[in-house]
Amino acid sequence: MTATDHALDLVAVAAQAAHDKKAEQVLAFDVSDQLAITDAFVLASANNERAVGAIVDEVEDKLRESGAKPIRREGHKEGRWVLLDYGEIVVHVQHEEERSFYALERLWSDCPLIPLTLT
In the 3-class helix/strand/coil scheme, how is the chain assigned residue by residue? Predict the structure, then answer.
């Protein structure tokens, strides 16, 4: 199984929104073969809590404009690791220290990367 076209569209919107707010290391994984609950993960990081918040706000705004509604949002208060669950995709915006420590790229390295065209 692979991520749906709609999920890939949402990934592109979320990744571009994160990139527009200067997120670092923006990646996306197709996790549909490993997880039944979502098709893709988008990972992005920033070097401080304020930047994490700005990235999260931009991702939420752009996904809302695309008609996507979040199922849940976790970690926004702390600003170190924010998870945005949209059902078909899950967006992780992490402080760079959390990104390094939890190493989600390594955890999901057996899943295919989704190519991103960020402008």
Answer: CCCCHHHHHHHHHHHHHHHHCCCEEEEEEECCCCCCCCCEEEEEEECCHHHHHHHHHHHHHHHHHCCCCCCEEECCCCCCEEEEECCCEEEEEEEHHHHHHHCHHHHCCCCCECCCCCC
| pLDDT tens by residue, 49-88 | 999 999 999 999 999 999 999 999 999 888 899 999 999 9
54 domain-assigned: yes
Q: Distance between CA atoms of 28 and 86, rounded to whole angstroms?
A: 14
Instruction: Give the CATH number for residue 53.
Output: 3.30.460.10
